[in-house]
Each structure stands twice: as structure tokens, then as C-alpha cells.
Automatic annotation (TrEMBL):
<keyword id="KW-0597">Phosphoprotein</keyword>
<feature type="modified residue" description="4-aspartylphosphate">
    <location>
        <position position="535"/>
    </location>
</feature>
<feature type="compositionally biased region" description="Pro residues">
    <location>
        <begin position="121"/>
        <end position="135"/>
    </location>
</feature>
<dbReference type="Pfam" id="PF00072">
    <property type="entry name" value="Response_reg"/>
</dbReference>
<feature type="compositionally biased region" description="Pro residues">
    <location>
        <begin position="392"/>
        <end position="411"/>
    </location>
</feature>
<feature type="region of interest" description="Disordered">
    <location>
        <begin position="112"/>
        <end position="139"/>
    </location>
</feature>
<feature type="region of interest" description="Disordered">
    <location>
        <begin position="368"/>
        <end position="421"/>
    </location>
</feature>
<feature type="region of interest" description="Disordered">
    <location>
        <begin position="437"/>
        <end position="479"/>
    </location>
</feature>
<dbReference type="GO" id="GO:0000160">
    <property type="term" value="P:phosphorelay signal transduction system"/>
</dbReference>
<feature type="compositionally biased region" description="Low complexity">
    <location>
        <begin position="437"/>
        <end position="451"/>
    </location>
</feature>
<feature type="region of interest" description="Disordered">
    <location>
        <begin position="603"/>
        <end position="622"/>
    </location>
</feature>
<protein>
    <submittedName>
        <fullName>Response regulator</fullName>
    </submittedName>
</protein>
<feature type="domain" description="Response regulatory">
    <location>
        <begin position="486"/>
        <end position="600"/>
    </location>
</feature>
<dbReference type="InterPro" id="IPR050595">
    <property type="entry name" value="Bact_response_regulator"/>
</dbReference>
<dbReference type="InterPro" id="IPR011006">
    <property type="entry name" value="CheY-like_superfamily"/>
</dbReference>
<feature type="compositionally biased region" description="Pro residues">
    <location>
        <begin position="456"/>
        <end position="479"/>
    </location>
</feature>
<dbReference type="InterPro" id="IPR001789">
    <property type="entry name" value="Sig_transdc_resp-reg_receiver"/>
</dbReference>
Length: 622
């Protein structure tokens, strides 16, 4: 629905998607715009559009092949229709058709740049910088449904089986690992499959202990890992990479270094106090890795990333968490910051990151010992049987035959017990109801009047000691009008803005999203808002004075405010400005739920948790 000032988040998303696709499919458009369009398609679950953009990506940066133009023109028309209608339904309606077109493009056109095609322009183009080939470009991926053929799966996994593609080594390793974990029991447990477009997670219950080590070894050979699935007994989670045109990483910073960890190798991410990080090795058994570069720790809390490979896992401490994003291979800019760092990637915003390979990071880490499952005690052995020599039973000596029948046995006669007297209850005269005389006896003898029988006397109940007061009619208090369920979000990153808006919409809010402080100031007076979420740094405003201004404007309309922060420095800046509630990036559903339960306690489906600080050692979901 349209909010104050005419801002509609659905319309804004559709307009942004239409603009990004128009820029990405223009002749000679840079590859980065195509990757931005893919990020939006993945965020909106447009799998067919994402696959089509991935299929045409090798031909980007030049004029499109003539035979490919009609396909791209259909995508442009659907995107233009999205912008006019203000929603993504036009693209969603043709998403399956776009997936079929992507398959045709993958079969017909080779993955060479369009400059080598016959219809390429005659003018020579400057040669791009050499980059390592993408790992998934050398082999054809395998569908997850093909790899798991014949394996019973949990309900709700069918869509993941149809849509996910795996590199052939990962597909073979995953099937072998599941066979080790599930064993040959009948019926076999049904694993559950889920994917976020960058990695595949499989949750298995009732695994065989003897298959854990072999499964971990085969998973480690393809960069996957295996770990316990929360607090569920005998349940384990498998995580492997999926086939994608661009690899996804978790970007972070250590000192002046920008580092990237492959997303499929990330087990957990959490912000922790420094003193709790030092106790991780003793309490959780998680070794803390030495930093690539040392820098003074200025924040009280630091991001901790649990990196896993096979059964091995360790903690990587960062100074700042950037974001989860996809990137493409890049040439090394110079000397590597460490001996084991051999490749780099470049993000869509042209930032260079050094890649930390899990095998190199965990080279000195040993897998933790696994607690053996309880064994059943064998039943106690029966005492040994001792055989004794058999002895013949001597017959009993015969006695004289009885002379006659035995005399009868006299039984004592049982005398009849006397009847017990009935208990007599003491009653007063007032408590005894008089009996009415019979009709014949009540008429006088010789009277000409007919006999009249009086009705029986109905006893009057004894009154209570104090009669209850008469009910006083009460007037119900007027019902409180439902609070306004509209949230104002100011976030300059369109990906983060859409992600936060979708999480809020799933909890029943109508979201009005803007990207600048000027738009935020224009919409604030239209409150009260259920929540005002303002980024601590926008393109046209930043700093504590800006946050103080927004907080006071929100307070004037009776709206609570939340500052969207990246790290401890931004959080301290918000505290200086007087903003108490903060939400850290990347946004996590669990953190948002806790924030809403505190600031919007009347929201249906949210409950206020008992008031105790969380244990820094409790690891939350990503």
C-alpha cells in the first residue's frame, strides 16, 4: 500500500530492478551492472532471470550477438512492464520461460566473448586484464535431483532439488557422504535440503557414528564441511558449494587488509566481546586463528567467523565485517600479504579482496574428538548349567487299604450377626418439616363440604448471613486503537534495503524505504511510525549530529528509532547521539526479532524474552 509521501517499497523495488536490467542489457554495458542485476534477481527469488543473466554474462561488455537480441529484448520488455506496473509480477510470470531460454543459450552459444563472433564490431577492443578462469566454467554442472536420484528426502525439499546445480565433484562427494551417514538401514532417514543460492545445506537425523569420519574426509576434498545441527541429538548438517557464475564470499577487514572467506566455508558469524573471544578455546574448544595482519583493537566487540572444513573448525577474528556479496576472479595486484594467499576477487563496487582458502587457514587445526554414542549393555549371562547324576526315585511303601470312607469333617455353624442399630442424627424442631395430613382425616365428620386437601408446605430456605450485593453495571474501557504498523527505513544500499524490508514485511509491517537523508526528513513528520530505522551513514548525511536530529524528529511523532550500524565504532557514535537501540549489519532475523520484541511488544507473533543478557558463547544462526 502507498504510504505517506507516496513511497511504496514494492514499487521502488520494481523500479530499481527495471533500471538495473535496462543498464545491464545495454550494448557495451560493464559486467558489474550485470552482476548487480543478478544479485537483485537472487534476492527476489527470480531463478529463471538469474540463470539467464548468468548464461549471457560471458558475452557482456560488447555488442550482443544478433541471435541473442530477441531473447534480451523480451527481458527488457518484461522489466519495463515491472517499472510501469510497480511490481515484479511481469518478470515472475515469464520466469519459467526465461529458464528455458537460458538452457538454450547455454547449449547454443559458447562461453567466449562476443568479440570472436561473426557479428562482432570490426573495431578492435583493448584486451582486458588476464583473470583466472571461473572454476565452474570448465565442466557442466549436475542437477541436485540427478545426484540424489533414488534417495528419499524430507518434505519441502523438492524445489531445492529441482533448482540447485552442483559441480560434478561436489555432487559425487555429497552423495557419497550421505550414503556413509545414512547407512543401509530400512527405512532410511530422510535428509532435508535447503539452499541460499551460494551454498547447499543438508540436515540429516539418525546418522551412523561410524560414517562421520569417512563422510567428513570426502566432503573436505571439495571444500565442504560437517557439523552438529544445533541441540538436536544425533543430527548433523552438511554444507557444500553450489555451481554459480560468480562465487559468493563473506567480506571482512583485518587492519588495512580486505579479506574474503568463501561463503560455503562459513559455519557461524557472531559479534563477541573481546574477553569472551579469548575464552573460546577453553570453553568451546574452538581454536582462534592468528590474524593475517595485526592492528590495535579499538572496539569492545569484534566479528568472529567460524571457518570449517570437514570436521575441522576454527575462529577467525576480524576488525570489521563488510557484507556477504558475490565477486569475480581478479589478477593479483602485487605481492601477497601471506604465503598461502594465492588469489584475489573483485566485487561489484570494484573493491579488491584477498581470498582466504579454508584448507590453508585450517592447516594446523586438528578435528575435535567425537563423543562415541552410548553403547547398549549386553544382558547378564545366565549361570552355567551343572548336570548332576540321575538317581532312580524309590517307590513309596504301600500302606494298608482304608476300611471305609473317611468321616465327615464338622464345620462350625455361623450364627447370624445382630443388626447394627441405625445412627440417630440430633435434629432440632425447626429443622423438621411437618407432614401434611391425609385428605380424609383433615375434613370434619359429618360435614357437607367436600374434603379439601391443602397444598404441601414448601420449606423456605434459610437466608444467608449477608445477601450478595446487587451487580453494578460496569462500562468496558474504550478499546485501544491498534498501533500503526508502518516502518520507515533509510538505507543507501539497495540490496540491504530490500533484505531488511522483506524481513519486516514478513512480520506484518508495511515498509517505506528511502535511500537518502533528505527523503527521510520529508517522511518523518507523517508519523507516528511503529519504527524508524536510519542508517548511521547516508550519502548526504552522517555523524552524531545527523543521528540526534533524526532521533528528535522521530520522538516528536512518538516513534522509536533504531540506528543501522556496521561495527562498534558506529554503535558508539549512535550512543553519543542518544540512540540506544541499534541493529548490526549484516541484518539477522534473530537480532531483528529481539529488537522488535523490545520496541514493539504488542506485535502479534513476538514475545518478550526473559530479561537476561545473552551468553557470549552461545552461537546464533547466520
Amino acid at each position: 500500500m502507498n504510504g505517506a509521501g507516496g513511497h511504496d517499497p514494492v514499487r521502488e523495488i520494481a523500479r530499481s530492478l527495471s533500471q538495473v536490467i535496462a543498464q545491464a542489457l545495454a550494448d557495451g554495458a560493464p559486467v558489474a551492472t550485470l552482476h548487480s542485476a543478478r544479485d537483485l534477481a537472487q534476492l527476489l527469488s527470480l531463478r529463471g532471470l538469474d540463470r539467464l543473466l548468468a548464461a549471457v554474462a560471458p558475452h557482456a561488455g560488447d555488442r550482443w550477438p544478433a541471435a541473442m537480441v530477441p531473447v534480451l529484448e523480451q527481458v527488457r520488455r518484461a522489466a519495463l512492464e515491472c517499472g510501469r506496473e510497480g511490481n515484479v509480477e511481469p518478470l515472475r510470470r515469464v520466469d519459467d520461460e526465461l529458464s528455458l531460454m537460458a538452457q538454450a543459450i547455454e547449449r547454443v552459444w559458447p562461453t567466449t566473448p562476443a568479440g570472436a563472433a561473426p557479428d562482432a564490431p570490426s573495431a578492435p577492443r583493448p584486451a582486458p586484464a588476464p583473470r583466472p578462469p571461473a572454476p565452474s566454467a570448465e565442466v557442466s554442472p549436475v542437477s541436485l535431483a540427478t545426484a540424489m536420484e533414488g534417495l528419499p528426502v524430507a518434505r519441502g525439499s523438492e524445489e531445492t532439488l529441482r533448482s540447485v546445480l552442483l559441480p560434478p565433484p561436489a555432487a559425487g562427494a555429497l552423495r557419497a557422504a550421505l550414503d556413509w551417514l545414512l547407512g543401509e538401514a530400512t527405512p532410511r532417514p530422510r535428509p532435508a535440503f535447503a539452499s541460499d543460492g551460494s551454498a547447499l545445506e543438508v540436515t540429516c537425523e539418525g546418522v551412523h557414528y561410524s560414517g562421520l569420519h569417512p563422510a567428513a574426509e570426502v566432503l573436505a576434498s571439495v571444500g565442504g564441511h560437517l557439523g552438529p545441527a544445533g541441540d538436536r541429538p544425533n543430527a548433523w548438517t552438511v554444507r557444500v558449494p553450489v555451481a554459480a557464475a560468480r562465487e559468493t564470499f563473506l567480506m571482512l577487514e583485518q587492519g588495512e587488509l580486505q579479506l574474503a572467506v568463501p561463503w560455503h566455508a562459513v559455519s557461524r558469524v557472531k559479534l563477541m566481546p573481546i574477553e569472551a573471544i579469548d575464552a573460546l578455546s577453553g570453553r568451546k574448544g574452538l581454536p582462534v586463528l592468528e590474524p593475517i595482519t595485526r592492528a590495535p583493537r579499538r572496539a569492545a566487540e569484534l566479528p568472529v567467523v567460524v571457518v570449517a572444513l570437514g570436521l575441522k573448525r576454527a575462529c577467525l577474528v576480524a576488525d570489521r565485517l563488510v557484507w556477504r556479496m558475490s565477486a569475480e576472479p581478479a589478477s593479483l595486484p602485487g605481492a601477497s600479504p601471506a604465503q598461502g594467499i594465492v588469489r584475489a576477487v573483485r566485487s561489484s563496487d570494484d573493491e579488491l579482496y584477498w581470498v582466504l582458502e579454508p584448507a590453508w587457514l585450517l592447516r594446523g587445526v586438528t578435528a575435535p574428538p567425537l563423543a562415541e554414542p552410548p553403547r547398549r549393555r549386553p544382558p547378564p549371562a545366565a549361570p552355567p548349567r551343572v548336570e548332576t547324576p540321575a538317581r532312580p526315585i524309590a517307590p513309596a511303601p504301600a500302606g494298608p487299604a482304608p476300611a471305609g470312607p473317611p468321616p465327615p469333617i464338622p464345620f462350625p455353624s455361623r450364627e447370624r450377626a445382630e443388626a447394627r442399630p441405625e445412627p440417630v442424627l440430633p435434629l432440632e424442631a425447626a429443622q423438621v418439616e411437618p407432614l401434611a395430613a391425609p385428605p380424609a382425616a383433615s375434613a370434619p365428620t359429618g360435614s357437607a363440604l367436600p374434603a379439601v386437601s391443602e397444598p404441601p408446605v414448601v420449606p423456605t430456605p434459610r437466608p444467608l448471613a449477608s445477601p450478595p450485593p446487587a451487580p453494578v453495571p460496569t462500562v468496558a474501557p474504550p478499546s485501544r486503537a491498534p498501533a500503526r504498523r508502518e516502518v520507515l527505513v533509510a538505507e543507501d544500499s539497495i540490496t540491504a534495503r530490500i533484505f531488511l524490508a522483506r524481513m519486516l514485511e514478513q512480520r506484518g509491517f508495511a515498509v517505506h524505504a528511502v535511500g537518502t537523508a533528505a527523503e527521510l526528513r520529508a517522511l518523518l513528520p507523517h508519523g507516528p511510525w511503529a519504527l524508524v530505522c536510519a542508517d548511521s551513514e547516508l550519502p548526504d548525511a552522517r555523524g552524531s549530529e545527523y543521528l540526534t536530529e533524526i532521533m528528535r524528529a522521530a520522538a516528536d511523532t512518538g516513534s522509536p528509532m533504531v540506528a543501522l550500524v556496521r561495527d562498534g565504532a558506529d554503535e558508539r557514535l549512535a550512543r553519543v547521539a542518544g540512540v540506544v537501540a541499534t541493529l548490526r549489519k549484516p541484518y539477522e532475523p534473530a537480532a531483528l526479532a529481539r529488537l522488535l520484541s523490545r520496541l514493539v511488544p504488542d506485535l502479534p507473533g513476538t514475545t518478550r524474552a526473559p530479561g537476561h543478557p545473552p551468553d557470549p558463547g552461545e552461537w546464533g544462526a547466520r
